[in-house]
Amino acid sequence: MKQLELHNLKVSYGGRTVLQVERAFFQQGRFYGVVGPSGSGKSTLLRILNLLERPLSGRLNFFGTEIDLAHLTYKKGIPIQRQMGYVAQKPAMFQTSVYDNVALGLRYRGVDKKTIRRLVMEALEQVELAHLADQRADTLSGGEAQRIALARALVCEPTLLLLDEPTASLDPYNITIFERVVQTFHREKQTTILMVTHNLPQARRLAQTCLFVFQGEIVETAETDTFFNRPASPMLQDFVMGRMIC
Amino acid sequence: MTADVTEVILLSLKVTTASVLIGVLIGVPLGALLGLSSFPGKQLLVAVIFTLMGLPPVLVGVIVYLLLSRYGPLGSLDLLFTPEAMIIAQVVLVTPILAGLSLTAVHAKERSYWETAKSLGATPFQLMLTILREARGGIWAGVATAYGRAISEVGAVMLVGGNIEHHTRVMTTAIILETRTGNFSAGLQLGLVLMAISFLFNSFLMLGMLKQMKTGRRYSS
User: Fold this and answer.
1) Which of A90, A127, A212, B131 could bridge across to A147 with cysteines, CB 3.0–4.6 Å?
2) Separation between Cα atoms, residue A75 and residue A110, nearest integer Å
């Protein structure tokens, strides 16, 4: 089975190493929860995978395509980037309609107007915001904007979906819808998902496998049940028990 | 309004509009590229552009005059004392303004917009268009500034145009001529027309910008 593999990754800011991963792999179609204290390197991991940052060194095997992350040019990264979806904690909504925001990725890919219209309206219906298609996206509430950002990522049917604390500032109602859409998409499309979250019950609910990132390293990876009920490392035990104070 | 005055106004509009359009075609992509890319020497280039934004028009006039004069490197084009020479001088004046203000407008957009477009799979060109669209408020302001500067400019167009009646006389050079001949009333009247044109242009530009920013494009259109 094809998988996503990271090798010899090293990310430094101003001489300080913030993330170092000797080897990590993610199976196709699996839902991963990424947890750890703030500043441990979780978001950096997602940004590196989404090719938004260039590390000092590192190789990525993207489901069969080998990439030298340290020397990848913008243009060469486009075909890989177009197989990914990314939702940040604070979504950037372009100053245009909700419809145009969701259609953007499809337009970049040269999809015809009729197909765009069908796919965008389907995506908006999935996140239960089809009635806002004509509304300006930069006037939405935080919860609506995040659901639109999810629709914008899902409409391109990514092979890899990266979610960086997407529900951190949402209310329970919006969290419920967000989680339901992500779960349905995962079940139907068998997309590989990496979701960074500080919400441990959320990681338990959604993820099949969890990763614990601490001080720039992936300390432990395990099936969700094992991860929370029988953590191997003392650090993870402290973290899941709420005893870790950073 | 006499036929002569109409001719002067029309030439002013022609020269200004042409120079701003050419300036937009060069300056806006240049500013966007500088705002979105990073390369060695970028800071120096940005400093040069910001310096050129305050370029004295008379100096531009002298340089363009020397370039286009009979023994200058572009003398064979025979452009001196033509409206085309005036357009060239004004393009030199407005392009740094358009580049500098576009760069500032693009820079003002948060990095998250740039990253969102990139993560959605934009090519560098698509990304530039997306960010330019996002920064359109600042770019419109740049166009308005450039238009205002070009239509009210006198030193450079006087030098390279020569203020020749029925050929290169524009509103600003006509105002100078009227004032020099003691015809202050005609000079003031032309000045008012200049102000009115500038006001109308800026109002049109700002209304368009506000309308576009207020309503998103409808999906059904």
Assistant:
1) A127
2) 16
In chain B, the DSSP E strands lie at none
CA torsion angle for B125, B131, B134, B140 (degrees, to 10)? -80
Closest residue by Cα to residue A197 from A77, A32, A73, A56: A32
Local structure of residue A136 (DSSP, 8 states):
B
Q: What is the pLDDT of residue B95?
A: 97
A190, two tokens: 């068998």
Residue A137 with chain B: CB contacts under 8 Å: 216
Confidence grade of residue A174 (pLDDT, cut at 50, 70, 90): very high
Residue type, B204: F
Euclidean distance between the first and final Cα of chain B, in Å? 43
Q: Taking a contact as any Cβ pair under 8 Å apart, which residues of chain B between 134 and 163 contact chain A?
A: 134
CA distance A215 to B128: 36
How far is residue B101's CA from residue B94's CA, in Å, rounded to a whole number? 11
Tens of pLDDT along A68-124? 999 999 999 999 999 999 999 999 999 999 999 999 999 999 999 999 999 999 999
Which of B140, B138, B117, B116 lies closest to B128 in space, CA to CA?
B117
Tokens 């950096």, located at residue: A44
Confidence (pTM): 0.83
User: CB of B39 within 8 Å of any CB in chain A?
Assistant: no
Q: Using CA atoms, how far apart are residues A235 and B10, in angstroms rounded to an integer?
A: 78
How far apart (Å, rounded) are the C-alpha atoms in residues B119 and A16?
Answer: 26
Interface residues from chain A to B (CB-CB < 8 Å): 50-52, 74-75, 78, 81-82, 84-86, 88, 90-92, 94-100, 103-105, 108-109, 117, 120, 133-137, 152, 156
What pairing do the DSSP bridges indicate for beta strands A31-35 and A192-196? parallel
Q: Whose CA is closest to B196, among B164, B170, B171?
A: B171
User: A205 with A179: CB under 8 angstroms?
Assistant: yes
- CA A142 – CA A145 distance, rounded (Å): 5
Using alpha carbons only, how large is chain B's radius of gyration in Å? 20
The residue whose two tokens read 């407008």 is B105
Output phi, psi for A77, to 5 deg.
-80, -15
The fourth-level CATH superfamily of domain B2-220 is MetI-like (1.10.3720.10)
Cβ-Cβ contacts under 8 Å between A and B: the total is 77
